Here is the input.
Amino acid sequence: MREKFQFKTFKSNSHFTIIRCLDTSCSWRLRAKRLEGSGYWMVTKYERKHTCTTDFKKVRYRQATSWVVGECVKKRLINPGRVFKPRDVIDDMKRKFGVNISYSVAWRGREYAYENLRLGTPEQSYSLLPGYLHMLRETNPGTVVNLEVGEQDRFKYLFIAFDASIKGFQYCRPVVSIDATHMKGKYRGVLFMAVCHDANQQIFPLAFGIGDSENDAAWTWFLRRIKDVFGERPGHVIVSDRHRSINNAVKEVFPNAFHGICMYHLLNNLKNKFKTKTKELEQHYIQTAKAYNLQEFHVLFYTLCCAVPGAKEYLERVGLDRWTRSHSPSRRYNIMTTNISESMNAALVKVRELPITAFVNEIRLLCQRWFFERRNKAKDFTSKMSKDVEKKLEKRRDRAQIMDIRYADEYNFDVIDGDQNFCVDMALWTCTCGKFQLDQLPCEHVLVVVRKSAYEAYDLCSPFYSREYWYESYSGVINPLPHIISWCIPEDVSSFKIMPPDVRTSAGRRRKRRIPSVGEEQSQPKCSRCRESGHNRATCQNPIALHPSGQTFTACSTNPSFQGASSSYHPPSSIDDTNS
Here is the structure.
């Protein structure tokens, strides 16, 4: 293709083929025959040298078909998050091979490459799903996979929990964040997920599910699978937004677990209900939700209710225990939001438009990479606590340096922090600030006691923050899968063909940007020309003063008649001045 030589099929059948140059006077040709009993072809004659003229070297190459173009650009599309438009395909073929192709050829070539990289079309992807899940269980023993189909063998639900996540959950705090996000493929659907924090305050993936929509049946099915696989631990906490189906499913499946809500989702509801978006409201609300003790909470809650009349009744009706740390009956540690679920959504945002089998494979690849990198990072770390906790303790030690201490007995201490004092009870592991018992980490006041006594700070930390738990949570390995041509699928699995869900797709281009939640503030674009928000430089129509400072503009020229001359620019006051 680079040499611009074109050829045509002179003769071809199921046994042999003859290809010649487009110029009949050229000696270049190729002959091949098919090997009996196989799908391979053997070249029997090949004349390498072209003797054709330059008239046959066309810019629009006839052999640049869609599948050839797809093979040429396939390597550029390996990354699922890369945006590669048909215009980029046209430019790529022109730059690499000097060949001009049409937009339709570029589009079909890109779609051909996508089908090869994404395990077929969306319809074929559902047919491959049973075989893929079989290989996933074979290569990762202990992995739990549940696939449920509806009428006419149409896809309904899918649940996946890797064996490494199942074994590692016991080394994580029992606070699980659940959320759902919409998929962007041809057959839509919803991705359910459950995540938690590891010892280093990073996202630890627990389970994933795919269903039709966020409804009571789908959430109940997903949470039942989670309970069957992970069980229910002491002090189990589930954190989510205020979706009604989540609330109903948690009550039915986890009646003994505490269900807390994300404080930021409630903040957006508060802004929307009372039509206020002031910074004071947000600041007072966040401080109230994060308060560690009841005394601090009552002061901040009173300030919040004074700033927003009617907020007291609304927040109490929601339940103070569900959105505040000080009233929570179960320990939430520092997980007051569903940010870890939102972060997991962001990590998968570019692959949610893939066909279902390719999408599940991308989830496996992401978890495989995370487990490998974090296992090695925890293995190489030398301290007793995780890296993030060590940084937090170091900051608290610095603050503890300026505090003083008064002794009551060998277990009780009075710590002076500025104009306040806090009581520390080392027998009960409590501090009146509330951080020590709620976070299970020594607060600044406890570290003052540690500095003045024989206590060891690391002994006062929960094992959920230790380097040992950090490493053990990622000790499991998520193994890779062989290429699809190497899969060994049993007959009963390969014969089971799943049909795509019965989804009615609307005309036009599918929506990819999500609809903002109630009360959510969207970031406005800022113009780099006038520095105002709401538009960009391309659509800016604001007048710009040439000399805002009022200084005169000095024009210099190489013309001798202008040397040393200066002129002041005065914008015309009206159209008449301009015409005159």
Summary: Residues 550-580 have pLDDT under 50 and may be disordered.
